[in-house]
Structure prediction request, 376 residues.
Amino acid sequence: MIVGVLGGGQLGRMLAMAGQRLGVRCRFLDPDPHAPAGEIGELIVADYSNEGAIARLREGAAITTCEFENVPASAASLLERTGRFFPGAGALAAAQERLAEKSLFAELNIPTPRFAPIDGPEDVEPAVRRVGLPAVLKTRRLGYDGKGQLVLREPEALASAWRALGSVPLIAEELVEFEREVSLIAVRSASGETAFYPLIENLHQRGILRLSRAPAPDTPPGSGPALQQLAQDYARRVLDRLSYVGVLTIEFFQSSGAALKANEMACRVHNSGHWTIEGAECSQFENHLRAILGWPLGATGALGPSAMVNIIGAPPILPEVLRVPGAAVHLYGKSPRAGRKLGHITLRAPDEPTLSARTERVRAIVAAAEAGGGVG
Prediction:
């Protein structure tokens, strides 16, 4: 059985690896001849707008999907018109444009940071006045890992903000004072069967995800079950409204104890869910394939305390990592470059204190490699 995938990055690579266990072969379309997924599955090298390449991707495939969120609308629409494509062009359109995304959350009564649209330079001042200072200005399209964003703290910065972000449509959001960032990975099949992974606590530095822990530590004490149910309720509203099929991730700001504000969503398997490969009964990658193929979903429970540490910029000295009990290394086959995600390390432990100790050891090894260039 063949599944066609738009995009051939590391997420596609891990989808293909999960598919191998199920007898599913993934075929990828990506303009990069060195796309990481090409080492695992068939790679069609072409632009996403190439209709002939899209036809080759779809040929003989039971289903098509995507492994990154900024899929060109033309490619998604063509796949949807000519066959089954999940999660669907409508869901991607909502997630790709930040104003549409925040408006969807608001329509579904999911709390978000205050926001206002900016269509031109004359809108910057009134939009920021609506959300208040400090504020975050974001490009409505594209932008990831902290790119396409600008924090405004002083009124004097308003005049240059439009040009600084490329003179494109923006959204202004209040700068939320939060206790931590958490994410929820949900999965829904075509029949409406829905499952949720435990909430994940995420640590970002300079806009890049560095560490994820799951299940998220119970903060404040006693809030865990209520927080999990609240996040699931919000995610279910989105899944049902979009008739969503596949894995969906929603990132939240947690503040004031058990209060959540939705920051953004991703219509794909997600970096914060990499711990599920070793740490959950069924990984997010396998469950995405199960969902889009109409197969029963796998169990999403955690096997114990788990963590994921991203490898950024340079690979660590692997023997040092492998000396840490419970560590599993995943490298993506990418060449080193500052700020680039080269892989990740998952960790498991019998209890939280042990996990924390192991995680700090691995983070120190990874940080030393990033600072000094690393050695594979």
